[in-house]
Amino acid sequence: MISDKSRYDVIVIGGGHAGTEAAAAAARFGAAVALITHNASTIGAMSCNPAIGGLGKGHLVREIDALDGIMARAADLGGIQFRLLNKRKGPAVRGPRAQADRKLYAKAVQEAIFGIENLDVIEGEATDLIVEQGRVTGVILGDGRELTAGSVVLTTGTFLRGLIHIGDKQIRAGRMGEKPADHLSATLERHGLTLGRLKTGTPARLNGKTIDWTVLEMQPGDDDPEPFSLLTKNLPNAQIACGITRTTSETHAIIRSNIHRSPLYGGVIESRGPRYCPSIEDKVVRFADRDSHQVFLEPEGLDDDTVYPNGISTSLPEDVQTAFIRSMPGLENVEIVRPGYAIEYDFVDPRHLTSSLETRAIKGLYLAGQINGTTGYEEAAAQGLIAGLNAARAAAGNEGISPDRADAYIGVMIDDLITHGVSEPYRMFTSRSEYRLSLRVDNADDRLTGKGIEWGCVGAVRTDIHQERQKTLTEWRDRLMEWTLTPQEAGRYGISLNRDGQRRSAFQLLSYPEINAETLISVWPDIANMPKWLRSRLETDAAYAVYLDRQVSDIDTYRRDEMLKLPADIDFTMMPGLSGELRHKLSTVRPATLGQAARIEGITPAALAILAGYASGRRRSQNEANAVDQRVPA
Amino acid sequence: MSNSDTIVALATAPGRSAIAVLRLSGPSTKAILDTLCGNVPEARRASLRRLRNSAGELLDQAVVLYFSSPASFTGEDAAEFHLHGGQAVVSAVLRAILDTGLGRLAEPGEFSRRAFLNGRLDLTAAEGIADLIDAETEAQRQQAMRQLEGSLSETVESWRDRLITAMALTEASLDFSDEGDVPDGLIDEGIAISSAVHTEIVNVLNDGRTGERLRTGFSVAIVGPPNAGKSTLLNRIAGREVAIVSPFAGTTRDAIEVRCDIDGFPVVFVDTAGLRDTEDEIEREGVKRARQRAEAADLILQLHAPDNQSSQISGSETIWPIDVELIAVRTKADISLFPCTVGDANTHADFVISAVTGQGIDDLLLAIKRRISKRTIQAPLITRERHRRALIDTVAHLERISETSSRAINPEFIAEDMRLSLRALGQITGRVGVEHILDKLFSGFCIGK
């Protein structure tokens, strides 16, 4: 729905993965929402690789789905190759990933956005924010129009003073061929937000018709593809395979002899890029002993010949790109559709944000996605959802919400960002989550949908499904705990247990590696009626039980410290007994809780003991100080 | 005790000395310097100043050092007065400082505590300094210095570093298994590293608690039948009268402790009640306690007085647990009617002494020192119960890794136990964050498609 209204509860600037989730979440809460984008046809665009999910990122997609977001459903509608990564490893580290048809994915996102009644899409450039007495009240568009709003969500992606590098060529752009956003940076800085520069890159795009696929190893999708969304019944598209080629010693020689023409190595680009997504020139220089790197050739669509060569992002000049790409098997005669490039852009130090992703400097202004120093569609979308929901809640006078580290990877990410800031684009990894065994892709709905219903971002359809699932889960779990047998009885069913006379429950039996739900059907035939998703879910819970029990007590401790709130107006610069460095760190991060303060790099137990004196929600300050002191030494 | 007070204390040993150092720390440091010296000397520069009290009387000519916050030992404004070391001078200057009303005498260890509170010391270093202050003997001082300079930190740092590597290898195979550059089998490499660390920590934990002993002193129990000369021996070693010595059996009912310095080793001698059967209820309790103390001691001196009726040992034989270290000593050589030498099958004595004449005492002390130093040949690493607990925790998690890996189940459990072991170890060295793991991982593998 496109209109010319000028008053909104929430205005979202940007139509990427963060912006669309933010707008949709705000709308689900019931807010009147405007989404401002340069060009409505770029809504849902995948600027870089045509894939959703992966290790760590797959968790985020499932969590977005659990909060009724749109990314998972769009990926199911656009997906053309589904794979569950780490299938042979444990359930906690599995990551669903889908190769997507660029056009189908964008179409799914656009249909979702355009289908929301209380959401207007406005084409135009948001040139400035209207800020009155430290609170954002609206947005000024490039054509001079002014829109007013209760809250604003800013999702600028790589557009904030975006600068593209290809060799020594520099282009001011937000994406190739699209205008950057140059004005907003100054506004943000004027209000006391600290900006920095980050860098990312993308590889050249290839014409698939000119690739010799016959010489390439092919990687197919899974035989039984699993959708991202709980609401998806069928995956509509045919599944394709990807090709795998490798860089050769010739590739490396070409790159090495032209390294001086790379803006990365010529000193033109000084901002930090992600270490886990290095350019090919980085790989060749930093890992000089490797003579070859894998390159995945990923088709960008079912009716699109464009191929995304995953693994060779670069900012080398076009002629060098052509030369090194053609030195790889299968690509000898390849035609380059579009050169790769590096892009530098502004981001805001996320330590200026609260856990609801609102800036402390400008009330009512929420930031999500690359502007917060992250990288990746999934990271952006997850933040967008939380920022959009909070923007809508704030506009309606509700308090801010955020999942915590024990709820979700989203909570881990937000806490990492606001506590540690970033030194390189932040990407999700499963290893970032200390409660990894508890936060799995198979229990995202269990962890979050109930909260989402409470927070007001889950629609009626999912609410019904969720309640039904929870009922089934509880019933079966109780049943499996109640049903018990002795080792002697088990022996009669061919299950051999230690003959200690101890009765064991069906749930306990599931924790044995050689016993699964199928095995137990012979004992308790009812188990045959257990839904498939629930079988694997309970098998995992049982197998993890020992570790999960310990995590429960760790989580209790963590949440106890999160209950100890530090006053928002606390003046760390005047706090006696703290070193200058710590005062500075604390003033930058402004931890909201004693727990968050404890996670700040370099905090001392003594400093925590002092901070504990200021915390509310405690019974006896000295006890708390001692407790913190013992738990978190130096 | 507030940190806003300015504190003062004598930093050197009391008594006559060439120089005595008075230390001052807190917000009123400058004001006090101004009052005594007439101005505030340039920071971090030795300045010669005439010190006067508020009445204008000249107290001393001293070298004065001023340290401006935060670049001082405590992190606060601080100063040192290097005075001529006479009791009168020190008292006069101290009084002058206190008379300003701006400062008070420091509590024991308060300077270190402030340094710690201001983040100038980490926990290990602070504990090292606390021990340094408490160090009564040379061996304790050396250990405190070792800890401060990081022999503990270095070892633990190496374990930490290797466990980070182990975890990076494991995490690489979990978080980046889809990467071309990440080979299979990394988890096995990780497990090999963690099990080597496991073994090393277990070895260090089996050090007989020498480190803690060096802090608190080795205990040597003096036992024997009543009137065997235990108290007399203790008095001889201590060089003063500490226990009540009387010729009547059963004089010492409670254990009496004397802390001594034997060639740099702190030793606590415990004089126990005479071990004998008795009807006296109080004495019986004393005997029971004596036995307990003796069994808990690092070394037992079993004393026998000569029975002047024969060369045989008098009294009933005391039976000790097999693992007790024991030195058999025959006392009262001066009044023995039967000449007796060491190694004599009848006496069963390792030493023959006389606490009255001093015969054999030096040899006995030398033997005690040898027994103790034998246990400290390897510099002990663990000097704090807190460290020991953290290492025991670490080992518990590492132990589970070997169990889990032998059953070849979920690699995420191995990663979880590595994470927990690093968290436990972090109680000594400071936290290990996921960034440490990722740093290691990204520097080792070419990650990124």
Automatic annotation (TrEMBL), chain A:
InterPro entries: FAD/NAD-bd_sf, GIDA_C_N, MnmG, MnmG-rel, MnmG-rel_CS, MnmG_C, MnmG_C_subdom, MnmG_C_subdom_sf. FAD binds at residues 14-19. One of its GO terms (molecular function) is flavin adenine dinucleotide binding. It holds the Pfam family GIDA. Gene3D superfamilies: FAD/NAD(P)-binding domain, GidA associated domain, C-terminal subdomain. Its cofactor is FAD. Residues 542-613 form the tRNA uridine 5-carboxymethylaminomethyl modification enzyme C-terminal subdomain domain. The keyword Glycoprotein does not apply. GO terms for cellular component: cytosol. Signal peptide: none annotated. One of its GO terms (biological process) is tRNA wobble uridine modification. It is found in: Cytoplasm. Keywords: Cytoplasm, FAD, Flavoprotein, NAD, tRNA processing. PROSITE patterns: GIDA_1, GIDA_2. NAD(+) binds at residues 273-287. The keyword Magnesium does not apply. SMART domains: GIDA_assoc_3. Belongs to the MnmG family. Homodimer. Heterotetramer of two MnmE and two MnmG subunits. NAD-binding protein involved in the addition of a carboxymethylaminomethyl (cmnm) group at the wobble position (U34) of certain tRNAs, forming tRNA-cmnm(5)s(2)U34. This is tRNA uridine 5-carboxymethylaminomethyl modification enzyme MnmG. It comes from Pseudochelatococcus contaminans. The lineage of its organism: Bacteria, Pseudomonadati, Pseudomonadota, Alphaproteobacteria, Hyphomicrobiales. The gene is mnmG.
From TrEMBL, chain B:
SUPFAM superfamilies: P-loop containing nucleoside triphosphate hydrolases (SSF52540), TrmE connector domain (SSF116878). It comes from the Bacteria. It is found in: Cytoplasm. GO terms for cellular component: cytoplasm. It holds the Pfam family MMR_HSR1. Keywords: Cytoplasm, GTP-binding, Hydrolase, Magnesium, Metal-binding, Nucleotide-binding, Potassium, tRNA processing. It is an enzyme of class 3 (hydrolase). (6S)-5-formyl-5,6,7,8-tetrahydrofolate binds at residues 23, 80, 120, 449. GO terms for biological process: tRNA methylation; tRNA wobble uridine modification. Its cofactor is K(+). Mg(2+) binds at residues 231, 252. NCBIfam families: mnmE_trmE_thdF, PRK05291.1-3, small_GTP. Belongs to the TRAFAC class TrmE-Era-EngA-EngB-Septin-like GTPase superfamily. TrmE GTPase family. Homodimer. Heterotetramer of two MnmE and two MnmG subunits. Exhibits a very high intrinsic GTPase hydrolysis rate. Involved in the addition of a carboxymethylaminomethyl (cmnm) group at the wobble position (U34) of certain tRNAs, forming tRNA-cmnm(5)s(2)U34. This is tRNA modification GTPase MnmE. It comes from Pseudochelatococcus contaminans.
